[in-house]
């Protein structure tokens, strides 16, 4: 298999590495997404934060933190999709792509 091809499910170790790039978040609906909220024992960010946003009458300020590659951006993209389906306009951008992080003031 060509390592550049994404074939699911992966059949070789090379296929696993070709299919999984932890530096790139998964878009909502990506077949590679695995909902780990049951293992964490709490609902997903999409559920908890999404419902909090929908119910709030005041602006919210929320912090989503975690280790690099743990799925923060993936969960936020899923939240974006959820809110979009509820009629919200969501502005999403990646600081690492859109700003010079060495020159933030």
Report on the structure:
With 105 residues, this protein is an all-alpha fold. It contains 5 helices and no strands. The longest helix is centred in the last third of the chain and has 14 residues.
Termini separation = 46 Å
Number of domains: 1
The count of strands amounts to 0
Largest sheet composition: none
Proportion of helical residues: 25-40%
Name the shape in a single word.
globular
Q: List low-pLDDT spans.
A: none
Rg calc = 16 Å
Show the helix and strand layout:
Layout: H1 13-19, H2 37-40, H3 45-55, H4 72-85, H5 95-98
Helix pairs in contact: 3-4
Primary descriptors:
single chain; about 100 residues; mainly alpha
Brief digest:
This protein has helices spanning 13-19, 37-40, 45-55, 72-85, 95-98.
